[in-house]
Amino acid sequence: MTIFDEQERRIWAGRADAYAGSFAALCAHPVPQLLDAAGAGAGSRLLDAGTGTGTVAAAAVERGARVTAVDADPGMAARTAADVPAADVRVAALPVLSFPDGEFDATVGNFVLNHVGRPRAALAELRRVTRPGGRIAVTIWPAQAAAGQTLLPRAVEAAGVVRPGDLASLAADEEFPRTAQGLADLAREAGLSEVSCTSLNWDHQVAAEVWWSGPAAGVATIGHIVTRQDPRTVAEIKRQFARLSVPFGGPDGVLRLPHTALLAHGRV
Q: Is the pTM of this model over 0.90?
């Protein structure tokens, strides 16, 4: 396990409910396209790697797939097991899974590659557990973020908070370009064929208080940064968030936040 992986475990521990009530709805947007790209259908054996609170697993079960879901965080796995009883849910972390070679017809990872310290090894492991001819589909957040994605980081910056120096980044030899070409190349490097990568763009509609509830509860790296501050600084971050949110607000009080993600898929 890398230092980055250890950090991710600490950041996400105990955050399943807070994530479900804040950022999970955002991450659910690509799920239909992700399952389509993987060819998930009735009777297919599907692995949902990095299931989080089970959004992908639930959608795959509704399609009639036989779903196995894994997550590195026991709290996430427990919530998915409770909410998606038809799925076989286990605690497991990439890049090492206990499944035999070729166990699944389709494998998906919704934003999981953003949260692993060895993305190349993780994708190679997904390939290993997928049968020859099966399909793999993954999403990531790209380096070029849309305006809605930068709202919370800009609020933190406007409050005078800098990224803590002890936050780990990927090792230089593990990093890859977070672009459509970079993700497609990563998939080909893992041995996938017929690789395609597309950009998904949408406006995430969410109440401002719901969006703020994620970082306020320590969800994700942005939440880890926010909750390390003293109460006065947290209040200033929230004030800046309210100010910077104005251009995204509508008459109904709902924020419309432009987001973009990358979806890559290929065949084993």
A: yes
